[in-house]
Every structure is written in structure tokens, then in C-alpha cells.
């Protein structure tokens, strides 16, 4: 495992240090929003996503993502934001990370809203219209997709297992679906998590600006839709994914300078080359941060006097007093 592994959330590492200002600020917002709905429960009716009220209260498409109504929920959201943001912000920049969080949050809420309306018309159950929906889980799922894109081969230590980062979003999606069948209460979080994974992949795959090459998105095979699934399913999924690619996002990658549409297939191997370059940049950035931390530790060790010198100094001080 590379040295940069210590900067990825892992058991036994110093994961709870070096948080960015942006993530600290968003964590404070999550905490204050939780306190607000605990002190004034009626505020959830205006800030959480209630599909029957979304048309007059359209702002809840944005605010719902930052409202955690339970203590475990706000703890998981804050810890996840700090840890994942610490990995992504040095590579993307604060502006791009904030843009990503805003887009994923808004898109996820819009998808959840449309889904609940469809389910209401199918089942005629009013609970779909009046149940307050909120939570930061869609953004957390999206941040996991970002880590999959940048450091797909990085191994994370999860309890006793070592799992590559590229499989974490898929494991989260599968686990969420499985738990929803066991615990009915968790069903309310399932659409948020699944849509968070999908819309974040859509944004990173087709729309995120890559200034270094003047294009948008990530056309590499390592970040295709089928890469979220085991290899034996990919021959089935690739033809289906190509249909949606042509319908919705087939011409989204555009040249920054000319504005002409570009397709990753026009440049044989360009997707894989760009993916390798992106991983190398991420690796260098993370290793640089680790080197800075090690340099700071060594500097502190050099400035501190050795134990023998400290003992001699104490003895001299004692003799002077005598």
C-alpha cells in the first residue's frame, strides 16, 4: 500500500486531522440545522422535502439535504463530510467541491421529489406526499463516487477487510437496498442514496470541467457505468448504458476553446491515459501532504533537546539552587 493510504479514512490512522475550512463550515451548518429542527420541530415542515408543499416552498429542494433529523444521522453526515472532503478538496479545489455538493444535493432532491410524485399516482398513498424527507446521505454517496474516480485502486481498511475505493459506492448501494427490506424505516433514505450515487456519476462523467485538457467529464472505461458492477454483468449493462449515453449525454463533452462536441472514442486510449494522469495527480497531491506532515514532525523532534541534555540541565539547575 502506498504512503498516501494514511490520508484516506482508515482504521488506526490519523484520519481526524487536517480538515479543510470549507468542510468545517458545512459541518457547522449541518450541526446548526439539526439543533434548529430539534428546538423548533415545525421548522422541518419548511426546510425538509415534503412533496405536497414543494411547489410553493421550492427552496426545500436545497435545504432538505442539510437537515438531519436524528442524532446518528448528523454524526454520520459530519464525520463523512470531513473525511471525504479532506481527500477531494486538495485535488478539486474548494470552489469545485462546493459546486459539486450543491449540484448533487439539488439534483438528488429533484429526483426524489419526482419519484415520490410518481409513487403517489401509482399507489394513491398520501404518505408519499406528506412524509418529510431530508438528509445529507445523497451528497455523502456522491463524495464516495468522487473518491472512486480519483483513487479507484486505493485500498481502504474497513474493520478487518481491505476494499478498493472503486467498490465502496456499489457496496453502499447494495447494503442500503438490503437494509431497506429488513428495516422499513430505512426505506425513506434509499432513494436519496441511490440518486446521490447516480447524479454524481453523471456530473463527473459528462459535465465536470477538466481545465488541463480543455474538456468536460471523464470518458475513461474505468469510470463507466458498468464499472460499478461485477465484471460478469458488464456485457449486459454496457449496451443499456450506451443507449442512455446517446439519449442524454452523448454530446456533453465539449472543447473549452472551440465549443465543438467531442467523444472520447475519437481519441483511442485517451480515456485510459487521462484516468492514469488523474490518478497520478491525486497520488502526488496526497503524498505531498504526507511529506509535509512528516517534515513538521521531524522539525519538532530536532528542536526539542535530547533526553540526556534535559537531564543534565535539570541537574545543573538543582546544583545552582544548592
Automatic annotation (TrEMBL):
This is Rhomboid-like protein 19. Its main location: membrane. Residues 257-284, 298-322 are annotated as: Disordered. The keyword Transferase does not apply. It comes from Urochloa decumbens. It comes from the Eukaryota. PANTHER family: PLACENTAL PROTEIN 6, RHOMBOID-LIKE PROTEIN 19. It holds the Pfam family DUF1751. Signal peptide: none annotated. It is found in: Membrane. InterPro entries: Rhomboid-like_sf, TMEM115/Pdh1/Rbl19. The chain crosses the membrane at residues 26-50, 70-88, 100-122, 128-147, 159-182, 188-206. One of its GO terms (cellular component) is membrane. The keyword Transmembrane helix applies.
Amino acid at each position: 500500500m502506498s504512503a498516501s493510504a494514511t490520508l484516506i479514512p482508515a482504521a488506526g490512522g490519523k484520519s481526524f486531522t487536517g480538515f479543510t475550512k470549507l468542510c468545517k463550515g458545512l459541518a457547522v451548518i449541518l450541526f446548526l440545522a439539526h439543533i434548529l429542527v430539534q428546538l423548533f420541530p415545525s421548522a422541518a415542515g419548511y426546510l425538509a422535502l415534503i412533496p405536497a408543499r414543494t411547489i410553493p416552498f421550492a427552496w426545500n429542494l436545497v435545504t432538505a439535504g442539510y437537515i438531519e433529523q436524528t442524532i446518528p444521522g448528523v454524526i454520520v453526515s459530519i464525520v463523512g463530510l470531513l473525511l471525504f472532503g479532506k481527500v477531494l478538496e486538495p485535488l478539486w479545489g474548494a470552489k469545485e467541491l462546493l459546486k459539486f455538493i450543491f449540484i448533487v444535493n439539488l439534483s438528488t432532491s429533484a429526483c426524489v421529489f419526482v419519484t415520490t410524485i410518481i409513487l403517489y399516482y401509482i399507489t394513491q398513498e398520501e404518505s408519499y406526499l406528506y412524509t418529510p424527507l431530508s438528509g445529507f446521505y445523497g451528497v455523502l454517496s456522491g463524495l464516495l463516487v468522487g473518491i472512486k474516480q480519483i483513487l479507484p485502486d486505493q485500498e481502504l481498511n474497513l474493520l478487518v477487510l481491505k476494499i478498493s475505493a472503486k467498490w465502496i459506492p456499489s457496496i453502499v448501494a447494495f447494503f442500503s437496498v438490503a437494509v431497506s427490506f429488513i428495516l422499513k424505516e430505512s426505506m425513506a433514505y434509499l432513494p436519496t442514496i441511490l440518486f446521490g450515487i447516480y447524479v454524481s456519476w453523471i456530473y463527473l462523467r459528462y459535465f465536470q470541467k477538466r481545465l488541463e485538457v480543455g474538456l468536460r467529464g471523464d470518458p475513461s472505461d474505468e469510470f463507466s457505468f458498468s464499472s460499478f458492477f461485477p465484471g460478469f454483468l458488464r456485457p449486459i449493462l454496457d449496451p443499456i448504458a450506451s443507449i442512455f449515453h446517446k439519449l442524454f449525454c452523448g454530446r456533453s463533452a465539449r472543447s473549452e476553446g472551440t465549443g465543438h462536441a467531442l467523444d472520447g472514442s475519437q481519441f483511442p486510449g485517451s480515456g485510459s491515459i487521462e484516468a492514469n494522469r488523474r490518478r497520478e495527480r491525486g497520488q502526488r497531491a496526497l503524498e505531498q501532504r504526507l511529506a509535509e506532515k512528516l517534515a513538521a514532525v521531524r522539525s519538532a523532534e530536532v528542536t526539542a533537546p535530547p533526553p540526556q541534555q534535559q537531564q543534565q540541565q535539570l541537574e545543573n539547575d538543582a546544583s545552582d539552587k544548592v
